[in-house]
């Protein structure tokens, strides 16, 4: 996820707007990590999310499994 955010920063001239990890966003059963990148004016924001290990599959992991990979 970090390398993807760096690609957006380098190639699309976006910057890191906000980020959280699984210690901040979690339930008893699932959690996620997220980096949000934005344009200079902060009118466009793109979240980049990935699942973190939990007792059950997160919605993000279900998406990745269903579509056999990441998506935009």
From TrEMBL:
Give the metabolic or biological pathway.
Answer: Amino-acid degradation; L-phenylalanine degradation; acetoacetate and fumarate from L-phenylalanine: step 3/6
For the keyword Iron, the answer is: yes
Q: Does the keyword Cell membrane apply?
A: no
> Per its Swiss-Prot or TrEMBL entry, what cofactor is needed?
Fe cation
Any one of the GO CC terms: Golgi membrane
The catalytic activity of this protein is classed by the Enzyme Commission as: 1.13.11.27
> Which keywords are on file for this protein?
Iron, Phenylalanine catabolism, Repeat, Tyrosine catabolism
Domain named VOC is located at 1-72
Q: Which GO terms describe its biological process?
A: L-phenylalanine catabolic process; L-tyrosine catabolic process
Q: Name one GO molecular function term.
A: 4-hydroxyphenylpyruvate dioxygenase activity
Give the UniProt family note.
Belongs to the 4HPPD family.
Q: What is this protein called?
A: 4-hydroxyphenylpyruvate dioxygenase
Q: Which organism is it from?
A: Dreissena polymorpha
């Amino acid at each position: 996820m970090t390398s993807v955010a760096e690609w957006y920063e380098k190639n699309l001239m976006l910057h890191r707007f906000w980020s959280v990890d699984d210690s901040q966003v979690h339930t008893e059963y699932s959690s996620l990590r997220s980096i949000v990148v934005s344009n200079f004016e902060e009118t466009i924001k793109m979240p980049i999310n990935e699942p973190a290990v939990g007792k059950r599959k997160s919605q993000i992991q279900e998406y990745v499994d269903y579509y056999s990979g990441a998506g935009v």
